[in-house]
Amino acid sequence: MMRQRHRTIRLETGARQALELTAEIRDWLDQIEAEEGLLSVFIRHTSASLTIMENADPDVMRDLTDFLARLAPEEADYAHDTEGPDDMPAHLKTALTQTHLSIPVIGGRLGLGTWQGIWLLEHRAMAHQRSVILHFIGE
User: Which domain range does residue 114 map to?
Assistant: First the structure.
C-alpha cells in the first residue's frame, strides 16, 4: 500500500559548515518503517544547500567548500550585498549545488553508494537556523 510521510529537521549550523545528515535521515526512515519508495530531501533556504558527497574522508568536504569559495569569492563586486559581503556568494554557491535531492529507498535502506552521504552546506559566515524537509512516498 502506497503511503506518504514527512518530517522537518531544524538545525543550527555553524559558519560555513558542512553537516552530514545521513544518519538522522536513516533513523527517520527506520522509525516510519519505510521499505520501498522515494525520499525527497529539500532545504528551505537560498544561502545553504544540499549535496551527496563522499563521507569517508573529511578532506573531500574541505576541498569542496574551498572550491566553492574560489568560484564565488566574497571580495567580488556584487550588486546584492544586503546582508553583508557573504550574502551573494552564498546564493551563488547554492545555485551551483542543490536545494533538492531524490534518493531511492530499497529494502528499507537509502539507495546510496558505499561512500555517499547526504550533506547540508552552510554558505554564510554566521550560524543560522535551517530547515530541511524530508518527504517519503512508497511502501
Answer: 3-138
What's the domain count of the chain? 1
Inter-residue contact 139 to 32 (CB < 8 Å): no
Q: Which amino acid is at 100?
A: H
The CATH number linked to 82 is 2.60.120.460
Beta strand segments in 14-99, E: 18-20, 37-43, 48-54
What is the side-by-side strand order in the sheet with 37-43?
A: 3-13, 128-138, 37-43, 100-106, 109-110
Dihedral of alpha carbons 75, 78, 80, 82, sign: positive
Cα dihedral 112, 105, 25, 131 sign: positive
Please report which confidence band the pLDDT of residue 1 belongs to, taking 50, 70 and 90 as the band edges.
Answer: confident
Burial (CB count <10 Å: 0-12, 13-18, 19+), residue 135: middle
Kindly report whether the global pTM for this prediction surpasses the value 0.90.
yes
3-state secondary structure of 120: strand
